TrEMBL record:
Family affiliation: Belongs to the SurE nucleotidase family.
Function in brief: Nucleotidase that shows phosphatase activity on nucleoside 5'-monophosphates.
Residue ranges annotated for the Survival protein SurE-like phosphatase/nucleotidase domain, each copy included: 3-195
EC number: 3.1.3.5
Keyword line: Cytoplasm, Hydrolase, Metal-binding, Nucleotide-binding
Cofactor remark from the record: Binds 1 divalent metal cation per subunit.
Keyword Metal-binding recorded: yes
This protein's record includes keyword Aminoacyl-tRNA synthetase: no
SUPFAM superfamilies reported in the protein's UniProt record: SurE-like
Catalytic activity: a ribonucleoside 5'-phosphate + H2O = a ribonucleoside + phosphate
Protein name: 5'-nucleotidase SurE
Gene Ontology MF annotations: 3'-nucleotidase activity
Amino acid sequence: MRILVTNDDGINAPGLQVLEQIAQNIAGPKGEVWVVAPAFEQSGVGHCISYTHPMMIARLDKRRYAAEGSPADCILAGLYDVLQGARPDLVLSGINRGNNAAENVMYSGTVGGAMEAALQGLPAIALSQYMGPLTEELPSIFDSAVGHGQAVIERLIKDAPWDQGDYRLFYNVNFPPVATGDVKGLRVTPQGYRRDTFFGVKPHISPSGRKFLWITGGPQHQPTAPGTDAAVNLDGYISVTPMRADLTAHDALNDVKKALE
């Protein structure tokens, strides 16, 4: 098996090292794991691509590359430069430090990398580790991902549907902020929504007198609706959410047609 791995926390991120080891275990001794990850952290870039300027790519080791771009850029670089068109059997993105559940999905570079792989017609999984007070006390903040990541990916490969549609399925996995032994199980969930929690800005005046704005996030431990991703994560379950890049509001199409056509 040939696996392509990326992330949005950067080539030196500990979560990437965790995912590389999981990928090696899945690929087996005769398999190949290729890593193409951002040279610097790219959190919050979503599915952006560097369309208006070039990016530098550097070989760091055998099958290991850093690119000055987004996770989606890294997928494109991996497919069409590093692998020279030799398609991987699976693309893994992560393991992100912090959850990519609920509205975070729309901003996530981790999810953006998996989305680009799906748009390229490849099976893809995004993986993230929810953080909390308990994770900071563990030997590894990625403890539940380390303990359950390989099994979840192998179950998805073996048992989950992988369609060949124009906007093919990909999967978003979030591990709960608990120790491996405290994980209660796995739940397949829709994407949730944290009400009254929004991104915003905080002004800051520099020593030169110029105003800068810091992006601020909302509380991450506010549960979403019962049975949705963040809610089950906070209850100790791994969430698996099937996704597509198609943003059409299919539930509204008929009503809009009746109103406008």
